[in-house]
Amino acid sequence: MAETYDVVVIGSGPGGYVCAIRAAQLGLKVACIEKDATLGGTCLNVGCIPSKALLSVSEKYAQAAHQYAGLGIDVGTPKIDLAKMMAHKNKVVSANTQGIAFLFKKNKVTHIIGTGVIKGAGVVEVNGQTIDAKNIVIATGSESTPLPGIAVDEKQIVSSTGALCLPKVPETLAVIGGGVIGLEMGSVWQRLGAKVTVIEFMDRLLPGMDMEVSKEMKKLLGRQGMEFRLSTKVTGAQNADGKVVLSLEPEEKIEVETVLLAIGRRPYTAGLGLEKSGVKVDNKGRVEIDDHFQTSVKGIYAIGDVVRGAMLAHKAEDEGIAVAEIISGKAGHINYDAIPNVVYTFPEVAAIGATEEQLKEKGVAYKTGKFPYMANGRARAIATTDGFVKILADAVTDRVLGCHIVGAEAGTLIAEIALAMNCGASADDIARTCHAHPTLNEIVKEAALAVAGRAIHI
């Protein structure tokens, strides 16, 4: 007789495992199906977590090589032990994935290793066995988007997965794609000694982000040694004598040791059985859902990268919680206007809400408050003075509509704005909140003050 569960979650990435745990907390009988041996999906195994480990270590190396001497710390010429660096990354990944396994046991979530196939409403097949599910949640995430003419072999031409475990620092690295993944992984290898060239089809870095942010990051990353080829199309790649020859439009070829293909990600639904089960997808391959995460088939839900919206781990987590609460009869809700996006380069980039370009396009009257890191005492003390905080507020109500940060700890600073926006706060609310001194958070306060033209320290 088939095992019956209240909820069966397919996929154990941030959306899937959080959904499973929250559903179990609410008293439901839950199983989570994962095709890989470890839990955590792309994010914990070959994405967010390992990349941040390498970003952190490479940043420390760059500081030791270029900054410490100016601060009075003589460490000589630092050396790279890439094997130890990768061991640290692997240790971090292992600790995180084991942590989820522990949480599954603690919350009595059944972990099933295998590929889940939806056979119809209420039925999932895995490892040749049928599981009855009162509710099914699709949380299968995304995969790297391919590019015609570029054959990824994870050796010389790598995806983000291969870029996490290169056996040596390449002399030259071409990054196809000037988005988040391209700039983050490009930063890692550039800091470690590679000559990095970022090739972007659009006319700017970080397409979709505020234009001022894109321009600032091009300047700052260029100062670090990155080169950029914007408005450039890559049409092909050939391996030759240990090198890769890239063909660009118009007629041009460049030769590099390694290529990173990072033009984005696409929903991963292979082998799920969506068509046969009646679950509809849109023209971008995303599972179609209503405002309560339910697909075209009653009792089958979908969350995370596989549905509409930003492909962000924290967005998937919040959707996982929301759908678990909806299934259990509670009200699950997400404010999609207040989801932050962070780029973990140095300096970091963080954004939330509308950009100036979007507000102008919609004809929204707004006010701008901007404050530079250079004018902040703590930023000077810790020698991180590049960047700014820019707050956009409604010209009439003063409600915060967006915020864009370039600078140290931007990903942490944006949380204050996320809270403010989620509560419908005004720029003046932020400005009148007492911020500890000396902190980088004071830059946010000064930017809020600047919305009304009353910044103090500039």
Strand content: 15-25%
CATH architecture of the largest domain: 3-Layer(bba) Sandwich
The helicity comes to 25-40%
- Main sheet specs: 7 strands, mixed
**Radius of gyration, rounded?**
23 Å
Low-confidence stretches: none
Distance between the termini: 72 Å
> Helix count, per DSSP?
14
| CATH H-level homologous superfamily name of the largest domain | FAD/NAD(P)-binding domain
Number of domains: 3
State the secondary-structure class.
alpha/beta
Mean of residue pLDDT values: 97
| Outline | globular
Count of individual beta strands: 22
CATH class of the largest domain: Alpha Beta
CATH fold-level label of the largest domain: FAD/NAD(P)-binding domain
Task: Give a topology summary.
Layout (H helix, E strand, L loop, with lengths): L2 E8 L3 H12 L4 E5 L6 H6 L1 H19 L15 H25 L3 E4 L3 E4 L2 E4 L2 E10 L3 E3 L12 E2 L1 H4 L8 E5 L3 H12 L3 E5 L11 H14 L2 E3 L3 E8 L2 E7 L2 E5 L1 E4 L3 E3 L6 H4 L22 E3 L10 H15 L13 E3 L4 E6 L2 H7 L3 E7 L4 H5 L6 E7 L5 E8 L2 H13 L4 H5 L9 H11 L7
Parallel strand pairs: 1-2, 1-6, 2-3, 6-17, 8-15, 9-10, 9-15, 10-11
Antiparallel strand pairs: 4-5, 5-6, 7-16, 12-13, 13-14, 18-19, 19-22, 20-21, 21-22
